[in-house]
Amino acid sequence: MSEFKKVSRSENYSEWYNYIVDAAELAQHSAVKGCMVIKPYGYAIWEKMQADLDQRFKATGHSNAYFPLFIPKSLFEAEEKNAEGFAKECAVVTHYRLKSDPNNKGKLIVDPEAKLTEELVVRPTSEAIIWNTYRGWIQSYRDLPILINQWANVVRWEMRTRLFLRTTEFLWQEGHTAHATSQEALFETKQMLDVYAAFAENIMAMPVLKGIKTANERFAGADETFCIEAMMQDGKALQAGTSHFLGQNFAKAFDVKFTGKDGKQDFVWATSWGVSTRLMGALIMTHSDDEGLVLPPKLAPIQVVIVPIFRSDEDLAAITVKVDEIKSMLEAKGVSVKFDNRDTLKPGFKFSEWELKGVPVRLAIGMRDIQNNTIEIARRDTKFKKSTSMQEVVPEVVSLLTEIQDNLYQRALNFRTEKTKEVNSKEEFLQVMDAGGFALAHWDGSSETEEKIKEEYKATIRCIPLGNKQEDGICFYTGNASKERVVFARAY
Amino acid sequence: MSEFKKVSRSENYSEWYNYIVDAAELAQHSAVKGCMVIKPYGYAIWEKMQADLDQRFKATGHSNAYFPLFIPKSLFEAEEKNAEGFAKECAVVTHYRLKSDPNNKGKLIVDPEAKLTEELVVRPTSEAIIWNTYRGWIQSYRDLPILINQWANVVRWEMRTRLFLRTTEFLWQEGHTAHATSQEALFETKQMLDVYAAFAENIMAMPVLKGIKTANERFAGADETFCIEAMMQDGKALQAGTSHFLGQNFAKAFDVKFTGKDGKQDFVWATSWGVSTRLMGALIMTHSDDEGLVLPPKLAPIQVVIVPIFRSDEDLAAITVKVDEIKSMLEAKGVSVKFDNRDTLKPGFKFSEWELKGVPVRLAIGMRDIQNNTIEIARRDTKFKKSTSMQEVVPEVVSLLTEIQDNLYQRALNFRTEKTKEVNSKEEFLQVMDAGGFALAHWDGSSETEEKIKEEYKATIRCIPLGNKQEDGICFYTGNASKERVVFARAY
What we know:
Oligomer: homodimer
Number of helices of chain A: 14
Number of strands of chain A: 26
């Protein structure tokens, strides 16, 4: 089955993750260094994420559009901070043609005569090409706001990659909005952070902290970066989404001005915000266990699997009649159901396979059940199983799906709560970092201190939580004055 | 509004097309040569196409997945015919980093030290990377069939581009399936052609001919290419979708074998099939008129627009009450409705704007309508309008949407029928080509003759229709014997 050995989380969390991604058939490495193949089962989960997010974007007034994959180098470098931030990881197209290799029949070489006069950067993010386009769309306040999202692939050259978490090419959505005022852009930035947080918590069942990044961790080209941060089961943090207040930086770089109601010209205010296939990694690491993937029902491509227990074709036929009934009733309630009637595999094998794939609810039905009018119902999250009457199974499954969704969230929240500690000294700080978890610590507010902490403990400030409690204290690292505790952690 | 001058189809069909794409805000050229920006309204139509097609793919057993954007050159060249076919139009990534230009502060240059040891081709199509992946997925007949589709962007370097019709980057879907037998692969190839034809006719309201391409026009690497061909309003043909029977070519190139039920090893059989944003061009050119875009209701992002006719805020308030009622009732029937209550624009301006954008049904309502319990209903396709009673408007709109969908199809079909002629001589052939249309002509079956005809008349064989009538005849060009008439046309 899997090329990776089955390991438990406690043995080796990182290998466990690789095992789950592989064994649950979510993704694999490709022939292209750092690029992944997202397999059908993994992609089906991503599609569910997309569908839910897309609906939320539209409900908040956004439309989808599509901008080019390539960015001419001269446009890419226009916003200097942004360009500097991404320059080191850009894939660059320099030629537009291959030709037959004269020295090697059947092989191709890059045609030196087809060199581009200007190199094209494969988008690592699309602010440059989009703001260059917006210039032509915006003359007056009447053209604002522009509320656009794009679903796309982006490329950031990574030296060390991990499936879903850090890959050279990944899929994402990037919102790019343009506004007449700073206030409106800031409102948008926060609104989209809320959209992300609601999605993470209600759909992924993954609790997140909403906060602001420090200057060091800010998106290149942003005035302020807001983020949602989640805690994985090894206590490490994962940045699950970001929403950037870009100020007038891109408008200035691309000369995008508008005439206000008062007739005065001003530069346009911008935001951008994105989540990516990285969320797949976050989902896996938040809920899964040593037996395999655990999926929240709202993202499970298959919510209920039905496994027949039979010895003969006649048994299977009799069971199938009953299963078809239950399946139709569940589907009528909007539940996605798979009847695993493969006749070459034993029930035990099927149980393991669907457990590995994280299907939230399993129903099993044999000839004795048919006689007794019962059915076995098992939940993936707690592994609890029981027999129930055939009449009750549909409403029970429906309410169980809600219960599992809630339980997964609550379990992850409890875990985070346990693993989040106020620390007041270097010793306490190190303890929390080594045990895994979030440290709430006073910090003197300087980038220099932040850098030193990062070097010494491999820990970063994940965020300054929104609505953070203000309290006088002293920085655990320098002893300098501090006004609030910030969230430190080691991170993915 | 538009940078293009409004022109009629008869004046200049090509400029008319550019005008429609621009004025209806569907797409525009970008700063990257040959790459387009798909604007929100255009993208909303594409999303509707995607949603419908995706459902059809899933209903026929396919799953979506995602494969890398880049293809290492050595993989790309493995299937020689395919490589040869696309080599001339490949964007090539040669470097993975930019750095500061030491001679030009704030500018970037490609870092010569970050040269890739092997160049990466930006996918023009994904057979190579996918079949290289399938090798790891297929051992036995139990692993077959593999039925996968991918929604993605692809790049084919084009020298002369036209929005939607021929762009360097475009969006598409590409199905890639693997089968144990030739028969099964051929069945799949034809099934997907039928899926495309049903989509084109039932959803796009665009009649298509289903056929087979000649060897000259075949996909590079295919044993047989099936296609659907549509006729545009200038009588030119547009290839709207292709489905390829790839034989064992890619399996052989990538060494993909399976063990059959009989224990014997054989190469796997393949298909691939795709449609792209080119369909947007086909849609526009099939139905639109001199006043603007005409959309079939099934693809219209807005199916009904309601324009209030008012002089005062009080009027608008009274009208709004009534409109809200109608809007809710229509929405309850699954109709998408826009209430254009902008108070800065005159009704006439709004009428023109929604006409330009192809909204199938327009309702207009003023104070007199409120008093008389009436409403004006206008259809975009025939421009027919009438007053109807408020009680009747909802069912009338619902049935009108179906009527418009049918009428657009019928109108396009009648047009194609009129412009399709049997021709038996060079003179007749030239007449049809110059007037625009499909010529059904005997052809001697040789590639050489096909080439000569192409050179002399700029016309190609669009397809040999499926189930074509067999009849003895003589080639209009060479006078040699022929068994059937094939479809010639000038094409996009």
